[in-house]
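Request:
You are asked to prepare a plain-text protein record giving the amino acid sequence and the backbone structure tokens, at your earliest convenience.
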Amino acid sequence: MNTGSDKGAKEPEAPERADAASGAGVDGGATEAAEGKPLGSRAPGFIQARRTLHLSWQVGVFIVGLAVVVGGVIMLPLPGPGWLVIFGGMAIWATEFVWAQLVLRWTKRKVTEATQRALDPKVRRRNIILTTIGVVIIAVLGGVYVWKFGLEMPWNIKQ
């Protein structure tokens, strides 16, 4: 399986660029053509020139990226920026592996699309209305609680 990170041979990279330019890439092609960045390894040239050194480099990048991603997964239920760390690990992998580059490009495209949808005036108006309704409901429930029980903590209420 070719990860696209061996730049010693230029042939594997050419079909990927052709797919990106034609819009037939794995992620739809729009982002690949727009970014213009070639897929593949970003290791220094002297490392890419030696197959064994390059394979060792890839293993090291994979292990470091895996450690960061695992740390992010651990942070999901615990305090910490879990998703941010996971995407950081993916970015580490993307320095060496084409599959990670494609995942990051797809993710960036989806985040951009979600941002554009969120900035749509109709969606913003709906979100503001729903937030206002939620705040009013919470305020009413809080008012009922204070009216019924006073400023007493729930675990101190004797019935």
About this structure: Residues 35 and 149 are 60 Å apart (CA to CA). The chain is about 70% helix and 0% strand. Residues 121-149 form the longest helix (29 residues).
